[in-house]
Amino acid sequence: MSSSSERLSLTAGEKARVAWYVARMAKRGLADDRQSGGRIDQSDLQRKVERIEEQARKRAERARNGK
Question: Which of 3-7, 16-20, 43-47, 58-62 has the lowest mean pLDDT?
Fold first, then answer.
């Protein structure tokens, strides 16, 4: 996720998608068995959230540059 000092302006759709991916990560975490913990790979969902954040950064940069 992004750092607290860098405030990304996400659209409503982006916020909904991030919330969906975070909920799926939580569901996967709950599905993981407690004895061996950490066997469930969540990197695909983390990459999707990072991609959404990168799109927001690019949009903010374009807005700053007036394009």
Answer: 3-7
